[in-house]
Task: structure prediction
Amino acid sequence: MGRTDSYALFGYPVYHSWSPFIHGLFARQTGQDMMYRLHETPPDQFRRDLLEFFFEQGGCGANITLPHKRAAAEIVNELTPRAQLADAVNTVLRRDGELIGDNTDGVGLVTDLTQNLRLNLTSPRILMLGAGGAARGAIGPLLELKPSTLVIANRTAKRAIELADEFSGRGEVSCAAFDGVEPLEPFDLIINATSASLKGEVPPIHSGAVDRDTACYDMAYGIGETPFTQWARDRGVRNVAQGWGMLVEQAAEAFFVWRGVHPQTPPVLEALHARATYLAAVARTRS
Result:
């Protein structure tokens, strides 16, 4: 019997992560002999030695989550083009003794939007809320959809301007502070890439930015509605989604990078929603 291949997630915090559940289902589905563990790693402990030690001990691949994605980009020996574009790493593999950093977040988002949610995104008008790492990783793949406009809105306009300038050569990108977004017509797609939902808040959004046909997508996810998805539903929006699909699709792409086989994601999404529904029911009975 051969050795079971070892994979891990580095982040802080990660105790709540669904990644072991997801990758366990992928492995079972594709017949891969692997295990996936969580490494709770505070920022002051995430350094070159820690990641390299994991691989030196036989690790085959790693995922990197907040707050280490930018730091990981500085640690690896080489970046893939999409990791260079995002200036962040969420997937690492070892090849010929070198650590290769990749980023699967953006492709995970676009796959969820176009395949799972089946949104019609022909020359879409997109509003991206936030200009941090989550937004940075998504902008490149979103621009491949050839949007008629992509507006980056942020609490401080300076950060949005810097990000828009960086991507300006790749498509129709503009920027504004939250209170500077005054659209002439509703957007086709609004993506919340801020951490506001984690704080129980909703970014300030101009009333003219949304109507019932606008798709509203929160990169955050949780059991029950997030503040942003509830805000959208309260305004009669029909297409509302959390980032569960992005979570699964970016994991599937990372699995493909590591194992060379792309798992089927619909049954995993179904299992994930079933588990989340069960946990929500348990929480209600205990409250």
